[in-house]
Amino acid sequence: MYLEETSSTNSYAHRIIQNNLITDGTLVFTDFQTKGVGQRGKPWQSEARKNLLGSFILKPRFDPLKGSFINFAATLGIFEAINEYFSGRVKIKWPNDILVDNLKIGGILIENVIVKEKIKFTVVGIGINVNQTQFDGLENVTSFSLLTGDPERREDIMNEISNKLEENYNSLLDGELSYLKKRFEQNLKGIEQNIKYIDKKTGEQSTGKLVGVSDEGSLVIENGKEALHFTNGAIEIVN
Amino acid sequence: MDIKDIQALIKFVSRVGVDEVELEKDNFKISIKKNQASPVTFSENAAPIAQPIYQAVPASQAPSEPSEVASAKSTKEDNINLVEFKSPMVGTFYRSPGPDKDTFVNVGDQINVGSILCIVEAMKLFNEIESDVAGKIVKVLIDDASPVEYGQPLFLIDPS
Asked: Does CATH place domain A194-237 in 1.10.10?
């Protein structure tokens, strides 16, 4: 489903779901968002007709307590698609940013609608920088054309993302949860390395080895004595 | 003790002007408490049974059954007819879609099945929580942007 312009593909997705017009796996994409949003309503700015902006609507009928596996599957799908272009240079920055050469190329915004302790549907909103080359006021970001020097066909990247997302979504529906988690961990930035992090509660900086993620999606860091689990609000990772 | 006895007891409590009475008898316990938030006032023409006290004895309960002891006990709470809407997951509770946005619901709002009540964020998954009951929001139990546990009550809803 293509829209020349919309307020945001995630909002559009929510509206058409309410009207029950939707089958599992519907993709809404647009050339321009007038009110693009990132997490917690942060504006997501993107020049018209330059980038990939879309929302996949999924109906996984999933237990919300396993919600982090939706994140593993969606993030892996986008990671693998981008890795087709920049093999070996792509990493996942926990919990769900995609980096190429340590620069952010894309963001994901996953919104679930939950009723009676079941996920009724999931909207996976993605924003991938493709042909935009100016990012005013933003640091550590990149785009396909900044990396390659050439404009890239957005349709090709979108097809790649659709395919990889579908593969990983099928793994999720087939219950291959540990397989998804393992691959998510393997491609995590800083995995099996010592990282520095700040505990946001105490303000203390510590060093520990990043060993993976828990089933709940927490980051697991070993400090020599024990494995500590951190939620995304609890720590800030220092490079 | 049957329903007439309970009504008589309520009349008695409201007449003597005490705030709370607990009575235990055989296999039965009842407590009657006045709603402090809306104090009962009396006038010449007022009905003898003040409205807040009705909450103490919902018509659907048959207090003579021994199995009703537990629920009769819970009448100490003012919210006997209210539904506790609980968090389906661990996460951070948000009352609005973004920091500068309007809240999804406020106290006094009428809500329907399918109304979005809040967001619980867990690991950057933004979970919009839909109501499975219709009614009125009576109380918001958690502050915006606070952590919530699985099963923790978030809202009190009057389903009537």
From this structure: no
